[in-house]
Amino acid sequence: MSKIWTVTVREYLAAVKTKGFIVGLIMMPILMGFGFVAGQFAQSVGDGSTRKVAIIDHTGGTVYDMIEAAVERHNAKPQVLGSGEDEDGEPITRQTEPKFVIERIDATDLDTQRVDLSDRVRSGELLAFVEVGEDLLQPKMKQLNPDDLKELEEAAQSPTAALGAMDILGNLQTDSSVVRYVSNKPTYRTFTNLLNRELRQPVQFKRMANANINLGVVSQVMQLATPMAIQDGGLYEKTETGEVAEERKGGRLIAAFAVPIGLLAVMFLVVMTGVSPMTTNVIEEKQLRIAEVLLSGARPFEIMMGKLLGGVGTALTLGIVYVAGAYATAAYFGFAQFVPPMTLVWFVVFTILTALLFGAMFTAAGAAVNNIKEAQSLMTPIILLLVVPISLVMPVVEDPNSTLSTFLGLFPFTASIIGLVRLAVPPGVPLWQTLLAVASSLAGTIAVIWLAGRIFRVGMLSYGKAPTPRQLVGWVLKG
Fold this sequence. Notes:
By secondary structure, the chain is an alpha/beta fold. It has helices spanning about 1-15, 20-45, 60-75, 110-125, 145-155, 160-170, 190-210, 215-225, 250-275, 280-285, 290-295, 300-330, 340-370, 370-390, 395-400, 405-410, 415-425, 430-460, 470-479; strands spanning about 50-55, 80-85, 90-95, 100-105, 130, 180, 235-240, 245. The strands form 3 sheets. The chain has a 4-stranded mixed β-sheet with strand order 4-1-5-6, with helices on both faces.
């Protein structure tokens, strides 16, 4: 045991005393904080430009008037207050969203106009040009084919097919019944979002009015067609005075997603930073013949366990520093209530188990090969084993008690990762499931350490050609 401790201390100090570790420990939260601040700064600065859009309205100007009114409302939005006052004593405001200027184009020689407007878009004079179909307010449909007709008939009987039916009807509109947005900046969606947001109801209202539907009925239909709103509410509780009140806590929904995903991100970061370098460390010791000196003073398993515990200590140091910093930040902004202290204790437990599990794999990979190039073929599947459960995190966050989530949370090689996510999602999981996840993960970790020890025992003194999978199995069976 003393030899394992000696190797552990040596490996830990060798890792944490390096300039790279210290710089990384300091720079990572700084860079993350800088990214957050930069995002907030970019959002506050926004886009203060003015973009010009040309409109060809084949409806005779009705839709152009709607677009003009929508643009005026957009341009008149209150801007973010800046610092100081102007010469008239008025607060200085800062434009955070682009303003738009629209130009009406009367359709004459349409093909020529389209080419000319496209050239103006290419030159940067225009952001885009919009062509409003002449039948937009009285849309026409293409002829239904048998498949479309069958799906529409099914939609009439099944509410679940209604959205599909709406898609069919939308795709069946003729070219003269749509709005075409033409630009060489397809990813710039601010103006198209403006049209979708501001014109949907006015166009629907006008269509019903054109169909000679009573305006009172139209207003009632538009009111009934207002999208259903769903609000997240808190649980109810009795106060000290005996009154029933809703338990409202700001940020509950955001925290429900942010806490488990944030803890998982920190775990992935510290495990990759703390234990993945163990592969290269073992390879370097083999190449420099340091391994032979180490083996003269301790057994292979003692050396491997010392290296493994040293790597786990490195990962745990990173994890504690980062989580403590994140918790202090959350407390400063009033979000610490969403991170129970016991969750942080379980984070430490599961991080240790994850680091032990994958550290053993990385150590065995380093012992089995002779150079970095050969190690890459073994490290890739190990990293995939770490990434696969992380890729399944969203279904687990949405329903931590589903059959899939429960299975992954108790399976030996995913329990330490998914188990952490499950208990961090409100209202958590029963304590016995968390303890079973720890036991399952520990059993899997012990099995992997045993297998890694047998590979390490033979591989540390194995030089020359990298072993084949069959030879690796032989090392495990024969030791």
